[in-house]
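**Sequence, structure tokens**
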Amino acid sequence: MRRVLASRKKCLWPGAVALSFEELKEKSGREALARCICGLIMPRSVRYRIRSGAERANARLKDEFGTRLGVRGHVKIFSRLMFGVLALTGDRLMHLAAPS
């Protein structure tokens, strides 16, 4: 038997039981605790970490390595972008090699 939020006007499943907001909140809290105990990482949080890392790299490429383009032509744009990627890679390699 499925349980749904009580505020829904019509039920999509036959035999579903309405669930109040307090019950829904309590159930969500129990699920979060169970995920924490068993070490389950939600795929949404993994995707967020990956995306934010990629967005940081793209922002740094645009801000610090000259990809705010003022040139015309795909060959010139491509060469500027590849030089920026090369400079960013070199910068990260130097950062990794530097003693902390």
